[in-house]
């Protein structure tokens, strides 16, 4: 099912919320409301409200609710609830709505294009490891599975991606350091 095109978002908490992967990314907690649209391939007959926050370096759904579109709309069944593509909606909010951002020359901006499919062709160079760490952090922060993306989109077998991950962590190219911005501000006082 394609993501619902009608999305409302309410930002909660501090402006940037979290710093992820040692400053590689930021993420903002939010409440996202998704409503069906005539263009949906398989529309839900209710709206979905999701609270999103960071848990262990990943934007995650912390609450999901289904609401009838009107008082005369049909009830919401268990089968209807099973149709909610929670992971797809988290990824949509993270990347397309900009809840996960990267540093730019002007502060924090939309996540840029992912590395090219052949980024690892020359082996574990410093540049390739940096691209690997960036890709890993983006996919992980958006609630995805990096090893699956590396296998399916980049042709990197799981054993190889595990070796690259261990090397990136050991060389501190990928730092699994996540904290709320307000915690950092309190620590500087």
3D architecture notes:
With 189 residues, the protein is α+β, with helices and mostly antiparallel strands. It has six helices and nine strands; from the N terminus they run E-E-E-E-E-E-H-H-E-E-H-H-H-E-H. A five-stranded antiparallel β-sheet has the order 8-7-3-2-9. Strand 5 and strand 6 (58-68) form a beta hairpin. The longest helix is centred in the last third of the chain and has 16 residues, at 126-141.
List the helices and strands and how they pair.
Blueprint: E1 6-11, E2 18-20, E3 25-27, E4 30-35, E5 46-55, E6 58-68, H1 78-82, H2 86-96, E7 100-104, E8 107-110, H3 126-141, H4 146-154, H5 158-170, E9 179-180, H6 181-188
Antiparallel strand pairs: 1-4, 2-3, 2-9, 3-7, 4-5, 5-6, 7-8
Strand content: 25-35%
| Total E-strand runs | 9
Shape call = elongated
- Report the radius of gyration as a whole number of Å: 18 Å
Helix content: 25-40%
Helices, by number, come to 6
On the 0-100 scale, what is the average pLDDT? 88
The spatial strand order of the largest sheet comes to: 8-7-3-2-9
Instruction: Give the biggest sheet.
Output: 5 strands, antiparallel
Poorly predicted runs: 1-5
**What is the ordering of alpha helices and beta strands?**
EEEEEEHHEEHHHEH
List keywords for this structure.
five-stranded antiparallel beta sheet; alpha+beta; 6 helices; 26% strand; single chain; elongated; disordered N terminus; 9 strands; 189 residues
């Amino acid at each position: 099912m394609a993501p619902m095109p009608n999305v409302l978002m309410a930002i909660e908490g501090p402006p940037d919320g979290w710093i992820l992967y040692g400053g590689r990314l930021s993420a903002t907690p939010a409440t996202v409301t998704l409503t069906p649209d005539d263009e949906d391939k398989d529309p839900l007959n209710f709206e979905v409200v999701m609270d999103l926050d960071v848990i262990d370096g990943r934007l995650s759904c912390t609450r999901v609710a289904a609401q009838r579109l009107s008082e005369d709309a049909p009830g919401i069944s268990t089968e209807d609830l099973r149709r909610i593509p929670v992971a797809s909606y988290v990824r949509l909010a993270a990347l397309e709505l900009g809840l996960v951002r990267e540093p730019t020359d002007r502060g924090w901006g939309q996540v840029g294009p992912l590395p090219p499919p052949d980024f690892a062709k020359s082996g574990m160079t410093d540049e390739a490891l940096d691209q690997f760490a960036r890709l890993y952090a983006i996919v992980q922060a958006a609630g995805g599975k990096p090893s699956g993306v590396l296998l399916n989109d980049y042709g990197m077998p799981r054993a190889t991606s595990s070796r690259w991950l261990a090397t990136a962590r050991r060389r501190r190219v990928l730092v699994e350091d996540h904290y709320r911005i307000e915690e950092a501000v309190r620590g500087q006082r």
